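Lab notebook, bench 4. Still working through the backlog of constructs that have no structural model yet. Next entry is a single chain of 325 residues. Request: give me the structure tokens for it.
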Amino acid sequence: MMVGATGSAWANSAHGQGLRAGVGVVGWGMRVTRLIPMVMVLAMAGGVARAEEGKPAAEVEKKAAEKPAAETEKPAAAEPAADPTKAIESLGGSRYRMGLIEFDKATRVVSIPALVNMNKGLVEYLLVHESGKVHESLFSTKVRPMEFNVAMLLLDWKPSATFFDYTEPERGGVPVKGATHRAENSMTIHVRWKDEKGKEQTVRIEEWLHNLDKKAHISEGPFIYTGSRIMPDGSFLAQDTGSIVAMMVDPASIVNNPREGNELDDIWVPDPAVPAKGTAVTIELRPVAAGKAEPKGEEKGESKGEKKPAVKPAQGKPAGKRSAK
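Model written out:
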């Protein structure tokens, strides 16, 4: 309730009114106001995570032990949540920037700057924060998961209510086989970068990934906005783990892969066309048109003659036991 009250007070402040006036669209301003409580929750969750970020566990425990008893009994003061609109600037027309993220309120496209993090080996994530699981992610970014999720909420993306089953808390989020997804939580992922000649190129992410079981590129289709989770202690799970887009299903991730085999960690590998590690790219997440939210290809049963030709990936399938969630 405190967060909601804070959000309401802020919405009526000069900052809140200023954003609504600056945007110049009543519906957009109302959406920002409506989302203030959620934004404040995410901002405070990020503040809690940043407070101990980078500190060794032993150091944190030592400092706690050195404090007088009376002081340790006092509840820790939460880091003040930042005014979320101070980070939003207009780029003209319907385009805005929030930190490093750019987004378009008319098209609902979100653009994230990133780096190629690996171009060989097994992939479990498409995109993680640079402090996340970079040893198994195709791309890494300086963009914090919390900031990305705020942008998605401002653009009225709706987290899927059907991707994970949470009815058995002890099992966590269990991916639902054959779940139907809506256009409001379905997106295509595209990558922009400059080639060796300095010419800008764009590809769908499917062209840069292979499914070893299928011996082909991954099937063309959407990825699903699942939104991660806010935990009982108030922390935002994606912010804690750094997970943004997952190939192997992960309830902590903000976006997940709905393709067949998404519970496996040993079938996704980069295509040889992926540029060198360290190459700057822009990840674009684009909404899927209504009626086109279901995946194509292997998930829906390809018709004869429609299957993509097999292309040999950069490396063979490693030996050993596969794991699944």
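Notes after review: Confidence is low (pLDDT under 50) at residues 1-26, 46-76, 296-312, 314-321. DSSP finds seven helices and 17 strands in the chain. Flag for follow-up if needed.
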